[in-house]
Amino acid sequence: MVGKIVGLAIGEPKEMAIGRNRTMTTGIMKQQVPKAMLTQHGFVNDASHDLKHHGGVDRTVCIYPAEHYVRWNEQFGVTLPDAAFGENLTVTGLLEKDVCIGDVFRVGGAIIQVTEARNPCNTIGKRNELSELFKEVRNTGYTGYLCRTIEVGEIKLGDELICLERPDDLVTVAFCHDKILHGKGTVDDLIRILEVEALAERYRFDVETRLINLVDGIVL
């Protein structure tokens, strides 16, 4: 399984207008660069603002499939900007239905591992001035996914993502969205997700909480 970087973006948190005389601080406004250095804590000169819900060593790289831009541009009659979803890497060939939690990729001089099915926030709609976009991203599960750094190194625009390793139990990003984001998971489904060793710590906590509530008969 091979993908290719068609967009590489980084950026520090900054103020973003979200309406008349209103602003918010966010890390979603990233700028395209030809190359960037990936460390154990993320890209140099890149950061999240809301550290409770974003960032951390399990979430150093955000990836978004380039194929989805075609759908959104056609559906909303717009041309979305580069890195419209706050992603670091916009890639071809690696959709949520094909990528598994635990997949390890070599990309440029770095190695990364998929850790989490991204749970989008409504900042996506605010950044693109399309409130319905956030809802559609959630409904479709076209959210992208998050990765941790296994080996630091430089990444360049145009680099390929080459899959080096896959876990034995294939739990795709799309499967996680169906069972967690869309709330369709059974006890067995949630246990299957939790058995993936590479799962991000915060995502694991969310799944464990959902499992406890499901066993106790609480519907989320």
From TrEMBL:
Pfam families: MOSC (PF03473). Residues 30-164 form the MOSC domain. It comes from the Bacteria. SUPFAM superfamilies: PK beta-barrel domain-like (SSF50800). GO terms for molecular function: catalytic activity; molybdenum ion binding; pyridoxal phosphate binding. PANTHER family: PROTEIN YIIM. This is MOSC domain-containing protein.
